[in-house]
Design goal:
6-stranded mixed beta sheet, 20 helices
């Protein structure tokens, strides 16, 4: 879609919004399509396509017929219009406390499939003038990390009512099977994301764990479905029972894997090189991912299902490493653009937010407006140039949108009834309402006064549910778990220290270095991935910024000294799990489509899209010794292409790990 089509759609929308009696096709063709349609047939096709496009934005075009004409459906006498209140976002007035809670909920999705939807929804509220600029609780940035590309693909299929197909590792048989499913909903339970849907092959409702999907999720072409009325993913997942506790017998190298040893419930035996220990677990797939990352440092003696899951990951990593080499070529622009909507659709959607935003925020600097919409100054100017050329069919000066940006400050004096943003889309409503449901007691833990968080959370949910209307349907199809931290006492100590500007003393267990250390730190901010919380701090012993997982902090307490001010929290959102330095190693990774989300998780500096949906990614790592663990953990979703020495080191690690399982019964079926 070209900029000319964007302009045509906008003009068509303005024409149909600003007529009371409707406009006939002849007027629309002459005034809106004058340069686009060569004949009546071409005009008819374009007009029908444009009506579909406007309907995607929620604008229903009314068809008015003249009963006095010969035949009630005579195209020559048919008129078209859009009601002025068609698809307009109702007025939503929020208190500062409600805005704070809503912003916390919206930012949960920053890097998930609903991230752009949440940002758009907040911008619509800002454009409508009902959203107050607020500061989030000091240093608190919650966010979720859904199950990679599969989550994004399933959300898109749910939104379009498209069945999906994927490979799946069946729990009952342990074999990979191809499933064709009508996706009704997604939800998180017990630390895992599940798809709830109708399995066409089995003719019944089934639940599928996204982490057990063995192939990319693809849409079934030429097929659609209707989800059950009033489907609620949360209710479906509430009936899901947590997996029973099992015991694993492991052979672990002497004096290694301290984090794993803290979960020992029994010791079976030992020798000079290894201890045979017993630990408890619930989910063999989740535990297998951790054990695979330990490579040759641990061997699973039992149970067989857990051992097979570990070997499958190790074998997958070896097989991927053995695949033919490929050329490493990155585009000059750096990060390759992921699949996205057509440019003109994005541009028109942005314009429908831009006009009401300017109405309620007169005189802002051009760069402020561009930053607000996350675009460049040049892209904003391009938008404004299209807007000032758009208006009613007659085309007189008073019938055009009137926008000025002299001296780099933007004013609008004629909005032609575009002064209110359109209603929330289904994914926008789902992002906000589901995010609010996931906050739990986090606002109170984050320091909002005790008389505000609960009532603000409840009241803003009620207001947005009413504003969403029918678009709230998809919100019931997505259900996440609360992101409030399990380590609430440590969370409270750290948030208080951030507010008071106090240092902390902590004992911390590093999984990568396999050691327990004591440190004094200046706390900067807290952030989460799902309900796994981290805090960023300036570490005095390392003389640099470090990130710590709360569940690996064994002790945290004030040491009685104020922070030194040696470092301050960066202004970027979200906080990064990794802080770059001059000693980092640049690694080129080959990611499958399933593993492509790792490029975002590890802040790839350059990416290149591959034809099969995978990615080349150049990633900066501070500790190259950890890369073999990283590759084995993700079992066949990632391999190292460069540097070659690191690839060889990783392959030795994988081969050593697999050599422990020399029995044919230990190896997965080929």
């Amino acid at each position: 879609m070209s900029a000319s089509r964007t302009e045509r759609l906008l003009n068509l929308l303005l024409a149909l919004l600003n007529t009371r009696v409707g406009l006939p096709r002849s007027v629309l063709r002459e005034k809106v399509y004058h340069d686009s349609a060569e004949n009546d047939v071409a005009f008819g096709r374009m007009f029908e396509r444009d009506k579909v496009d406007l309907k995607q934005f929620g604008f229903e075009i009314e068809t008015l017929t003249d009963p006095r004409s010969f035949g009630g459906d005579d195209p020559a006498s048919t008129r078209y219009r859009i009601g002025k209140d068609s698809n307009r976002l109702p007025d939503v007035s929020l208190t500062p406390a409600e805005c704070t809670v809503l912003l916390l909920a919206a930012q949960l999705w920053e890097r998930a499939a609903l991230g752009s939807a949440a940002a758009n929804a907040v911008r619509k509220l800002q454009a409508a003038g009902g959203f107050t600029d607020v500061d989030l609780p000091a240093g608190v940035q919650p966010r979720i990390k859904p199950a990679g590309q599969a989550f994004d693909d399933v959300v898109a299929a749910m939104h379009g009512n498209h069945p999906v197909r994927f490979g799946y590792l069946a729990v009952s048989t342990g074999r990979e099977e191809v499933r064709e499913v009508e996706p009704w909903g997604l939800g998180s339970r017990f630390g895992q994301w599940y798809l709830v849907g109708f399995d066409r092959g089995r003719g019944a409702k089934r639940l599928f764990r996204l982490s057990r999907m063995t192939t990319a999720v693809s849409v079934v072409p030429g097929s659609s479905f209707e989800p059950p009325v009033a489907f609620n993913a949360r209710a479906e997942l509430d009936a899901l029972n947590e997996l029973p506790v099992q015991q694993a017998t492991l052979a672990v190298d002497k004096d290694r894997l301290l984090a794993l040893r803290k979960r020992i419930v029994d010791t079976v035996s030992g020798d000079d090189k290894r201890d045979h220990i017993v630990v408890e677990f619930r989910d063999p797939e989740v535990f297998a991912e951790e054990l695979a990352s330990y490579g040759p440092l641990v061997k699973v003696d039992g149970p067989a299902e857990l051992r097979a899951a570990v070997v499958r990951r190790l074998q997958g990593a070896v097989d991927f490493d053995a695949a033919p080499p490929m050329p490493v070529v990155f585009p000059e622009a750096g990060r390759a653009q992921r699949a996205r909507k057509r440019t003109s659709e994005d541009q028109l959607a942005r314009m429908l937010q831009l006009v009401p935003f300017l109405v309620h925020h007169q005189g802002l600097h051009v760069q402020q407006v561009a930053d607000h919409f996350g675009i460049t100054r040049r892209a904003l100017i391009d938008d404004l140039k299209i807007l000032i050329c758009s208006g009613l069919p007659e085309g007189y000066p008073d019938d055009l949108l009137d926008i000025q940006w002299e001296n780099d400050h933007v004013y609008i004096s004629e909005h032609l009834d575009l002064n209110r943003p359109v209603r929330f889309s289904e994914d926008e409503a789902a992002a906000l309402l589901t995010g609010l449901a996931m906050l739990g007691d986090l606002p109170a833990l984050a320091g909002m006064s005790e008389d505000q968080p609960g009532s603000a959370l409840e009241s803003v949910t009620i207001k947005l549910t009413g504003a969403a209307g029918q678009a709230g349907r998809l919100a019931g199809a997505v259900a996440g778990q609360s992101v409030e931290p399990e380590q609430s006492q440590a969370f409270a100590v750290i948030t208080q220290a951030i507010r008071d500007g106090q240092q902390l003393h902590l004992k911390y267990l590093s999984r990568q270095r396999d050691e327990l250390s004591e440190r004094d730190v200046d706390p900067l901010r807290l952030y989460s991935l799902d309900n796994t919380w981290y805090f960023e701090a300036y570490c005095h012993s390392k003389a640099g910024i470090r990130n710590f997982r709360l569940d690996r902090v064994e002790l945290v307490e004030p040491n009685g000294r104020p922070v030194t001010g040696a470092a301050t929290a960066e202004q970027d959102f979200p906080a990064r799990l990794f802080t770059p330095s001059d000693d980092d190693v640049l690694v080129v990774l080959h990611l499958t489509r399933q593993g492509s989300g790792l490029a975002d998780d590890y802040y790839a500096e350059r990416t290149a899209q591959l034809s099969d949906g995978g990615l080349l990614a150049e990633v900066r790592f501070g500790n190259a010794d950890w890369l073999p663990m990283f590759v084995s953990q993700h079992g066949g979703s990632v391999r190292i292409l460069a540097p070659e020495a690191l690839r060889k080191q990783t392959r030795v690690w994988l081969d050593s790990a697999l050599a422990q399982y020399d029995s044919l019964s230990d190896r997965p079926a080929r």
